[in-house]
């Protein structure tokens, strides 16, 4: 009986990671205070609500920065009412501001969003002055 072949113990060196330039429109992460700011409710009709830290909304969106000023009712009440057709785009935005990632929305390498939802999200992002998403 022949002796077992010796296992190859030499490890191949991995290539160094590629140096990717930073996305030009990427923003720096918000200060920790944004995560401890007052809670704001975003409502899309009676059944769809999101609660978000005011500091995060103001940091990532010019629309919410303006809407949540104390001189407006939304800023005083801490409740923003939006049309229900923007509930899904806001859900995607809400996920992104918490995780800085949209890849968690992917299933088995396929995008689980319809083209219509992707376009609504893009239009909503542009209309609310929301940064890169």
Q: How many separate domains make up the residues?
A: 1
CATH domain class name:
Alpha Beta
Number of contiguous helices: 5
The CATH architecture name reads 2-Layer Sandwich
CA(first)-CA(last) distance: 63 Å
Provide the gyration radius in Å: 22 Å
Protein model, in words:
There is one protein chain. The protein has 133 residues and is an alpha+beta fold. It has a single domain, classed as Potassium Channel Kv1.1, Chain A (2-Layer Sandwich). 33% of the residues lie in helices and 10% in strands. The chain has helices spanning 54-60, 62-67, 73-77, 87-99, 115-127; strands at 39-43, 49-53, 79-81. A three-stranded mixed sheet has the order 2-1-3. β1 and β2 (49-53) form a beta hairpin. The longest helix has 13 residues, at 87-99. The protein is globular and about 80 Å long. The model has no long low-confidence stretch (mean pLDDT 75). Residues 1-27 are annotated as: Disordered. InterPro entries: SKP1/BTB/POZ_sf. This is BTB domain-containing protein.
């Amino acid at each position: 009986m022949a002796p077992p072949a010796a296992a190859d113990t030499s490890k191949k060196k991995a290539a160094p990671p590629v140096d990717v330039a930073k996305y030009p429109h990427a923003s720096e992460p918000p200060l920790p205070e944004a995560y401890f700011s007052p809670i704001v409710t975003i409502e899309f009709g009676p059944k769809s609500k999101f609660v978000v830290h005011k500091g995060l909304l103001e940091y990532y969106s010019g629309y919410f920065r303006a809407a949540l000023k104390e001189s407006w009712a939304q800023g005083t009440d801490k409740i923003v009412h939006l049309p229900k057709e923007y509930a899904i785009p806001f859900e995607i935005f809400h996920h992104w501001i918490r995780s800085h990632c949209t890849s968690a929305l992917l299933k088995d390498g396929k995008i689980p969003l319809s083209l219509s939802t992707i376009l609504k999200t893009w239009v909503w992002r542009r209309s609310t002055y929301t940064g890169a998403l």
